[in-house]
Amino acid sequence: MKAVMPIIIRGTGSFVPADTMTNEFFASYLDTSDEWITKRTGIKTRHRVGEGESTATIGIEAARRAMDDAGVGPDEIDMIVVCTATPEYPIPMTAGLIQDGLGIRGCPAFDVNATCSGFVYGMVVAGGLMSADGYRNVLVIGCDTLTRFTDYQDRSTCILFGDGAGAVVLSPSPHPERGILYKNIGADGRHLKCFWVPAGGSREPASVGTVNERLHYMRMRGPELFKVAVTKMESLVGEALRATNLTASDLAMMIPHQSNRRIIESVRTRLGMPEERVAINIDRYGNTSSGSIGLALDQACREGKLKEGDLVLFLAFGAGVSWGTAIVRL
Questions:
Q1: Which fold would CATH assign to domain 1-330?
Q2: Is 287 a catalytic residue?
Q3: pLDDT in tens, 184-201
Q4: Per the CB 3.0–4.6 Å rule, which of 86, 141, 264, 329 could disulfide with 167?
């Protein structure tokens, strides 16, 4: 079938900070254990930014690697889309800082905040602009530093998150059959407060009170979000396969957002896909939000698990709530 967006992934890149937090770190001061965390989440380790590191710095490193993989220089990039829920500053956009750090001048650069669905949103937005306006080489970068917004006194959330970035260079496809075959992005604001940071925005500006009440950290209604995520992700996969007349056996790989291993396993089991065709790295990196799909894609490519012509399903669900699916022929 022909691509609805004949846009190929020309190069991939990823980056995680060096500092690592193990489950034993949390067990050393919280009422938890490695066994409990592993059973509930599938996570063993996660990485966090250190001094001098930030959302922009890890995004720059992932983007550089994607550009090197694609064989393009700074003067060949026509647009930059940065997908992040943890921007460098409230103003200006993080994309401008990454643009400057990469030595790219003059092209459009903007942020997309769809939380954990950000990378899929970014690819779809970039693909639409490329199809409409003729951009040739576009950087899409998913990068988040959730550890900077994590309450390390909250046992239910602090174990989940890590920092990381994944990036791709998108370019026009040389063949009409290669590219984005299917896309679906959406949101349902009724579930907004399943996962949110209450303060620090225009509704609840920073104050002594908001700091004392720890309102600048992430808060989550875990059981409610888990139930909504499992149901929605399973339905999204079914819709994507029906729309493209494909079956799970046609997919070389499914690359889901790495939120919780139990959610991923539920979707995998429902599809009947073998473990080796589902990208899972949550055990090593935790939930890296917008960074997770790009990070997993880059690893799969560099490990030789994907090749030109393969069909890949991207699947994401995040706060907001937001969601995104795409089927891409590499």
A1: Peroxisomal Thiolase; Chain A, domain 1 (3.40.47)
A2: yes
A3: 999 999 988 989 999 999
A4: 141
